[in-house]
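Why Prephenate dehydrogenase? Reviewers of the renewal asked for a concrete example.
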Amino acid sequence: MRTALVIGTGLIGTSAALALVGRGVTVYLTDHDPGQARTAAALGAGTDEQPEGPVDLAIVAVPPAHVARTLAEAMDRGAARGYLDVASVKGGPRRELEERGLDLTTYLGTHPMAGRERSGPLAATADLFEGRPWVLTPTPGTDTEVLNQALELVSLCRAVPVVMPADAHDRAVALVSHMPHLMSALVAARLEKADDGAVRLCGQGVRDVTRVAASDPAMWIDILNANPGPVADLLSAVAVDLDDAVRALRLLESADPAKRGEGAAGVETLLRRGNKGRGRVPGKHGAAPLAYETVAVLISDQPGELARIFADAGRAAVNIEDVRIEHATGQQAGLVQLMVEPSAAPVLSAALRERGWSIRQ
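Here is what the prediction returned.
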């Protein structure tokens, strides 16, 4: 791939453009908002000038509702030799393209499983896709050259290709992305009019659960509008579980020991199901996550403190598998939770204590 046209210079389009430019590809940028394309160009994502002829690959990075129209316009003017989109829903746009009677041999629907709470070109990074799954949804009619171009794009962005049918993709993202986002929003919505005293007690748990609720509502309306059925099916199943949870909790209020026992069993069943489901979420190496030990360290909110603690862990020859920071409300301090292999936890704890760090159990 020597040339590419990125249509839509939001977070995903600009991030892909930055990655391609960094690998020596000439990238042309266009957007319905010319100012946004100019911003992406100023960030080094390519040029907002138009190519003189067809490019090797056109990457359509617009909301799902606009994918078919944007692709059709690009195909009609012969903008590229191959076309793909990066929308988060795949089945609907492809069916709309088929209804338009377009030749789809040069088109491939894709979806990089990466993103941030922020949107727009200023939030873009060249490493956004690194190590992340990038779904490709070819059909028997997809031209081999277009599939190869898509695989090259994924490689240049240092992502991991995953091939699956379009409708299977849509059901999968409803489960792992779209439904969880709505659940996060539902929890966060409970905080909207909550007492200030209660909100001040927010800890890392509620921060983790509500993190994605900070995303742009307009973007998510576009996504959910394109995949409502699978998401509604999942929420219906969640509603059944919620009814069971409410019933179990009401039983715990009973004065009857038998009913309280039934309620406790119901809550335990739900929590254990949650344990099993969480255990299936892939870890950093792709397989089921290992059981890491946590070393919690008190850290002050000062420049260089994180760098110092990581350097001290490196001197102890301990690999940090994961890290979380729990901020103390109203204080210039917090807890850094360092996840390491169980055998390394005592080594790390001793080494950090020796270097003056305060270890918390």
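The longest strand covers residues 293-300. This is the kind of structural detail the renewal will allow us to pursue systematically.
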